[in-house]
């Protein structure tokens, strides 16, 4: 074993008790072992590698140990640090570059904690930190059938940052934990968190046009540490604090019957293009981790400066190891993969027919039973919705559902038939797959909020400092007669109806519904549809609106309860019009003003559907919906309910609150066999 080469001056006490020797090549990263810490790092093409120890408080370099030659196994360099305890030091790596010079101190790609970030908004000076091995989860995670999920997409900081949240630690995992009673009352059973892996919020080149101050990278799609929770999301903004607080929060959510899905970003990294910083991957093995042009330049098909080489075995292993780490360390329930189509590209940037990483993730035993959700697009315009290589495991954000429901609610030509297909789970896209392959949504973090979709005809992104030209150019939105805030009661009434229409259709469609946090009480971003740089009330949830929008909040909770009460809305097989033996009605039947006569004309603004389920034997569940997307009232005759039942009114978005919704079991019975549909309204009935 070799003593350290110390910095000038008296060696600190820590170094007095340390010595090193060769380590083990498995696992990668820094792993506490008996009386020591084992380090293993892949670094191809470098003859020499150093372990750099730093003071955990100041980041001052304390010593640099050369990795011993006898500890090298293939391209894996190993070293074991005896006498070291997790948290007593920070560390990094240096490599000998082709010029012979030593690289900057590099981060460990496998680091479970990154020090030097501090509180939100502080310029980070990142250092890797060893964390103790965790114990088993304190709370068993809830096992929820994907068909029963209602997903709620939220940003950890924005969810509780506003003073109106009333939490003790706003903008943190702890703040999210304090809001669990609200989530339970709303009825959602899965939260999907925007990136929580360590990222640099100060990494944004744009400035505020109003103040000239630098704008942040608020969303966090620029990962620095892929296995490390973001320290600034903890009340104690340290690696150990974030580690403990995240585990406590996941456990509290699980105890409340709520699953946790993480938004992960494996398509690019915070190292950016050639002018970006060398943080880790570029110094250790750039050709393995990144797609490069023939002349060695980063291949930028993510519009971020670099593209991860996900098909390379080294990088595939790294991604798998990170996913396993989040599952085994924090017991998360699944992942949403940002720009997942990048993961289908080979070394030349072309789309592969059978990407090895996707198969490996789908069949990995540690990830079995965890949700895998792909954003099946990338920055080049590649759209794999319905064709993403799912291996029977992957689901997809269904952007075509989003577009179809928006066009339908605006009465666009040809939209009734298009939305009918999306409503029953998009069987044209997911033939041979369950309806749960489709994660349906109307809004997400990227784009207008639901309130803004009803309030703006165009984006208003001037605050982003990009001239207002960033973000999605056209969102099929309608301001209902006036652009932006207004006190016109007719406009406000129409906007409220359109929001309820969208939410009711979403929560009755086949597939997995996803709500955007705040849509349930009318959150606005003042027309900004690309608020990635807005760490302000523009992006924060204003909880005082939960009082002002109590009627909408009540409506949404009733819609979630309605979905939960009706198995016919949560079927995993795509319903068709064939009549099974012994059934009163087929699984799905389409209607119009007259039963059995749907209007499929391109100009149609009326869609009526009856959903029927007669399994298991002796049970039946029947729901009828009628949507009028035109401005005039419509009268529809109802099909007869199953024998021995009557139609009851569950929802009517054209009625004033509280008559617009009724909780399951308390729906009033209809006395007539017809419905009067208000303009721009949706009605839901149940047979009982």
UniProtKB/TrEMBL annotation:
Single annotated GO MF: isoamylase activity
Signal peptide extent: none
Glycosyl hydrolase family 13 catalytic domain: residues covered: 153-563
Keyword tags: Transit peptide
Record's compositionally biased regions (Acidic residues): 464-477
UniProt xrefs under CDD domains: AmyAc_Glg_debranch (cd11326)
Region entry Disordered, spans: 461-480
Pfam families: Alpha-amylase, CBM_48, ISOA1-3_C
Cited InterPro entries: GH (IPR017853), GH13_cat_dom (IPR006047), Glyco_hydro_13_N (IPR004193), Glyco_hydro_b (IPR013780), Ig-like_fold (IPR013783), Ig_E-set (IPR014756), ISOA1-3-like_C (IPR048650)
GO biological process: carbohydrate metabolic process
Family: Belongs to the glycosyl hydrolase 13 family.
Protein's UniProt name: Glycogen debranching protein
Organism this protein belongs to: Streptomyces montanisoli
């Amino acid at each position: 074993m070799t003593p350290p080469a110390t910095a000038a001056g008296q060696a600190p006490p820590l170094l007095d008790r340390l010595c090193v020797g060769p380590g083990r090549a498995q696992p990668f990263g820094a792993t506490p072992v008996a009386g020591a810490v084992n380090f293993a790092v892949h670094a191809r093409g470098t003859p020499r590698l150093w372990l750099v120890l730093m003071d955990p408080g100041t980041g001052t370099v304390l010593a640099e140990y050369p990795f011993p030659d006898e500890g090298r196994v293939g391209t894996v360099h190993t070293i074991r640090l005896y006498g070291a305890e997790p948290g007593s030091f920070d560390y990094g790596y240096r490599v000998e570059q082709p010029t012979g010079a030593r690289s900057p101190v590099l981060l460990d790609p496998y680091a479970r904690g990154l020090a030097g970030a501090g509180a939100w908004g502080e310029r980070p000076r990142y250092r890797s930190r060893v964390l103790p091995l965790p114990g088993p989860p304190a709370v068993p995670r809830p096992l929820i059938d994907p068909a029963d999920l209602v997903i709620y997409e939220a940003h950890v900081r924005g969810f509780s940052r506003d003073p109106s949240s009333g939490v003790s630690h706003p903008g943190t995992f702890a703040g999210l934990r304090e809001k669990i009673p609200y989530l339970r009352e709303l009825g959602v059973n899965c939260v999907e968190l925007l990136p929580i892996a360590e990222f640099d919020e100060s990494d944004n080149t744009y400035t505020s046009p109003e103040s000239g101050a630098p704008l942040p990278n608020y969303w966090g799609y620029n990962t620095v540490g892929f296995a490390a929770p973001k320290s600034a999301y903890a009340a104690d903004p340290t690696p150990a604090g974030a580690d403990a607080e995240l585990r406590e929060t996941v456990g509290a959510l699980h105890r409340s019957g709520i699953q946790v899905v993480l938004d992960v970003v494996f398509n690019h990294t915070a190292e950016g293009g050639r002018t970006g910083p060398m943080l880790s991957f570029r110094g250790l093995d750039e050709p393995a981790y990144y797609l490069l042009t023939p002349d060695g330049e980063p291949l930028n098909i993510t519009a971020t400066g670099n593209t991860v080489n996900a098909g390379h075995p080294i990088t595939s292993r790294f991604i798998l190891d990170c996913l396993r780490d989040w599952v085994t360390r924090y017991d998360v329930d699944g992942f949403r993969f940002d720009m997942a189509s990048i993961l289908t590209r080979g070394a030349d940037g072309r789309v592969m027919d059978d990407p090895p990483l996707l198969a490996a993730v789908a069949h990995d035993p540690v990830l079995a039973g965890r949700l895998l959700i792909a954003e099946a697009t990338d920055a080049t315009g590649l759209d794999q919705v319905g064709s993403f290589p799912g291996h029977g495991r992957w689901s997809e954000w269904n952007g075509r559902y989003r577009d179809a429901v928006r066009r339908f609610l605006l009465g666009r030509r040809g939209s009734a038939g298009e939305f009918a297909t999306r409503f029953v789970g998009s069987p044209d896209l997911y033939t041979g797959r369950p309806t749960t392959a489709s994660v349906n949504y109307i809004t997400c973090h990227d784009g207008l909020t639901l309130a803004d979709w009803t309030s703006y005809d165009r984006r208003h992104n001037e605050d982003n400092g990009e001239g207002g030209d960033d973000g999605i150019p056209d969102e099929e939105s309608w301001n209902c007669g006036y652009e932006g805030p207004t006190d016109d009661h007719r406009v406000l009434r129409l906007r409220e109806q359109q929001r309820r229409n969208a939410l009711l259709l979403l929560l009755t469609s086949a597939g997995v519904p996803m709500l955007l946090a705040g849509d349930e009480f009318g959150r606005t971003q003042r027309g900004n549809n690309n608020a990635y740089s807005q760490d302000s009330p523009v992006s924060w949830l204003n909880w005082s609106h939960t009082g002002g929008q109590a009627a909408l909040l009540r409506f949404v909770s009733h819609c979630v309860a309605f979905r939960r009460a009706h198995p016919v809305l949560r079927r995993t097989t795509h319903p068709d019009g064939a009549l099974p033996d012994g059934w009163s009605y087929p699984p799905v039947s389409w209607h119009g003003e007259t039963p059995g006569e749907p209007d499929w004309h391109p100009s149609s603004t009326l869609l009526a559907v009856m959903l029927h389920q007669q399994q298991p034997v002796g049970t039946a569940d029947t729901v009828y919906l009628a949507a009028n997307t035109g401005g005039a009232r419509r009268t529809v005759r109802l099909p007869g309910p199953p024998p021995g039942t009557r139609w009851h009114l569950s929802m009517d978005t054209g009625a004033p609150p509280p008559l617009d919704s009724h909780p399951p079991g308390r729906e009033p019975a209809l006395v007539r066999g017809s419905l009067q549909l208000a303009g721009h309204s949706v009605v839901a009935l149940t047979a009982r």
